[in-house]
Amino acid sequence: MGIHPDRVLLSESIRTSTYNPVIAEIKVRSPSKGDLLRDRDPLDILRAYERAGAVGISYITEKDRFGGDIRVFKEICDESSLPVLRKDFITDKREIEETAELGASAILLIARMLGERTTEFVDTALEEGLDTLVEIHNPEDLTFLEDARTTLLGINNRDIEKLEMDNGDVSVTERMVSKIKRRDIQIVSESGIKNLEDVERALKVSDAILVGTAFMEEKDPEEITRSFVMGRRENNA
Description:
By secondary structure, the chain is an alpha/beta fold. The protein has helices at residues 10-15, 42-52, 70-79, 93-101, 111-114, 118-127, 171-177, 196-205, 213-216, 221-230; strands at residues 22-26, 29-30, 34-35, 56-60, 84-87, 106-110, 131-136, 152-156, 186-190, 208-211.
């Protein structure tokens, strides 16, 4: 089925952004922080992110550790005009087809998990009309990208094997960027971006940032998201 015909791809939304390109994540739970939703409606948070100027929406569909719900993901895809990224530990091509059918614009593919299958999973996703955000964390992960036609490359500032028990640091993005030879990929700095200083550092070396926990911890996710998008605190505007 592919994505909705009127849905802009995530890579295009990043490319055409006139402000800081921020992908805002609706995150239900974190292994390190616990409950992040706190009885709030995910669709209310979605609308806050839209008003704040995010270039895209991310949602983690993994249920056991992150509290995701595929039905909520579909609601987000149906309700938002922004490109929606599915984050999960994708290991089956049927999950790619499902993601497209649900109306998503992009899918996360973790190079360390897929290994030599990364290229074929990217090809399958592209055939389904999805942008692919292939995630790496260390130089060894780069070996799985040589033939992959991915549109987006995510640098996770946290080690996924530690399930967010490390805080993450933008220095991971700064170190990894110098090792990436390809210039035909948009780079997204993911996780561990906590404040405006982190935003500035990350965007000096990447094309976009993906932020979840820092937004979800706030009582007013719209205000902090807008501050990241605009590059300043609201009271300094």
